[in-house]
Specification:
Blueprint: H1 11-26, H2 31-46
Protein name: Transcriptional regulator
Organism: Stenotrophomonas mori
Biased composition (Basic and acidic residues): 8-36
Length: 64
């Protein structure tokens, strides 16, 4: 985890990123690419960093 400050991420997000990174390396990705993919995936899933109540999207109600 060399790029950027990861201190705002939860321990769970850090573990997820590490697991994804190891999986990508096993698939043949370079360590740099694996790290980039891992953190992009965590950010896409969770919005990045610790989540607070404000600024989060409300759940979709499925009526549209």
């Amino acid at each position: 985890m060399s790029q950027g400050d990861k201190s705002s991420y939860t321990d769970k997000q850090k573990r997820q990123a590490e697991h994804i990174e190891q999986s990508e390396i096993a698939r043949g990705a370079s360590r740099k690419d694996a790290e980039r993919i891992a953190w992009a995936t965590v950010n896409k899933q969770d919005g990045g960093g610790k989540q607070s109540g404000s600024g989060r999207k409300p759940p979709h109600d499925g009526k549209h």
